[in-house]
Amino acid sequence: MTALLEIADYRLAFDTFDGTAQVLDGIDLTLEAGGTLGIVGETGCGKSVLARSLMALNPMPPARVVSGQIRFRGSDILGMSDREMRRLRGRAISMVFQDPASYLNPLLAIGTQMEDAIRGQDAAVGERQRPRAAARARAAELLAAVGLPEPARLLDSHPHQLSGGMRQRVLIAMALAGDPVLLVADEPTTALDVTVQAQVLALIARLVAERGLALMLITHDLGVVAAACARVAVMYAGTVVEEAATADLLSRPLHPYARGLIAAVPDLDHPERRPQGIAGSIPSLITPPRGCRFHPRCPVATERCRSEKPLRREILPGRSIACHHATP
Ligand SMILES: Nc1ncnc2c1ncn2[C@@H]1O[C@H](COP(=O)(O)OP(=O)(O)OP(=O)(O)O)[C@@H](O)[C@H]1O
């Protein structure tokens, strides 16, 4: 059976004034229909660039595909024309971003923006644009689906009249407009208050379960992954270093970087145990370390790690690690 999404040996570089940054360095990931995958890692490790790759949203140039494929239902999206990509966006793959305010026009009522988006999608897939009234009815239905009360009144409101959490719900509603099969959420709760974060995350988890959506959730927060994703991929400096069932990774991380990430999370049950950070910082992607990109920070690095890049291999069923020293 073909996976919904297959990313194979995907390398992406950014040509900058300072040199070429090798931002994604051979990503391999698979997501089945209805599967939920969290992507975690420190800031700058390439999570957002990877998410944006799924919708051709990285500016090219400066970005440049060096190698690999991103197959969605078997077709490589990297070779798609703008027209094909527009068809895919919204109808098959939809995205929710970190900062809801910047994706809504402050001057237009929510209803107008949702109608425009819904009718724009009709046009993108080559269908006759539905009348405004029909688009408005659809918008109200979507607002109700994301738990927003009084949709009719909300449609007449402007973005500044809504709280941050409500704005993010509006954007999630818009992301659902074309009945996508894959939702890509890039730090969807990071800009929100803590209490609202949990509500929005619960909403995403509910929608994913009810609609059988596949989810790729980008976050730096392992708690967010635990709440919404069955599987998790840990990224470091443009590579996936470990991929596993979320519960397995959280209870027993095997890659030294994954161990460090988890050790850095405060343990609320044992406040006396001080969280251990990972010494050092992420490397330059213009002159990345040879061999394993994590070796300068790794407590178990050896000579081999300095010269030979570890390939990710399955060391337990459903669990793969890119480390020369990993043992099950
Ligand atoms: N338009 C661009 N031009 C040049 N470099 C870029 C561009 N966009 C991203 N990068 C580089 O790609 C790398 C990865 O960035 P990315 O935003 O994917 O990281 P991230 O893991 O999502 O971090 P964060 O959690 O802070 O969003 C960074 O080194 C960044 O500087």
Automatic annotation (TrEMBL):
<dbReference type="Pfam" id="PF00005">
    <property type="entry name" value="ABC_tran"/>
</dbReference>
<dbReference type="GO" id="GO:0005886">
    <property type="term" value="C:plasma membrane"/>
</dbReference>
<keyword id="KW-0067">ATP-binding</keyword>
<protein>
    <submittedName>
        <fullName>ABC transporter ATP-binding protein</fullName>
    </submittedName>
</protein>
<feature type="domain" description="ABC transporter">
    <location>
        <begin position="5"/>
        <end position="262"/>
    </location>
</feature>
<dbReference type="GO" id="GO:0005524">
    <property type="term" value="F:ATP binding"/>
</dbReference>
<dbReference type="InterPro" id="IPR050388">
    <property type="entry name" value="ABC_Ni/Peptide_Import"/>
</dbReference>
<dbReference type="InterPro" id="IPR003439">
    <property type="entry name" value="ABC_transporter-like_ATP-bd"/>
</dbReference>
<keyword id="KW-0472">Membrane</keyword>
<keyword id="KW-0547">Nucleotide-binding</keyword>
<keyword id="KW-0813">Transport</keyword>
<dbReference type="InterPro" id="IPR027417">
    <property type="entry name" value="P-loop_NTPase"/>
</dbReference>
<dbReference type="InterPro" id="IPR003593">
    <property type="entry name" value="AAA+_ATPase"/>
</dbReference>
<dbReference type="InterPro" id="IPR013563">
    <property type="entry name" value="Oligopep_ABC_C"/>
</dbReference>
<dbReference type="GO" id="GO:0055085">
    <property type="term" value="P:transmembrane transport"/>
</dbReference>
<dbReference type="GO" id="GO:0016887">
    <property type="term" value="F:ATP hydrolysis activity"/>
</dbReference>
<comment type="similarity">
    <text>Belongs to the ABC transporter superfamily.</text>
</comment>
<dbReference type="GO" id="GO:0015833">
    <property type="term" value="P:peptide transport"/>
</dbReference>
<keyword id="KW-1003">Cell membrane</keyword>
<dbReference type="InterPro" id="IPR017871">
    <property type="entry name" value="ABC_transporter-like_CS"/>
</dbReference>
<dbReference type="Pfam" id="PF08352">
    <property type="entry name" value="oligo_HPY"/>
</dbReference>
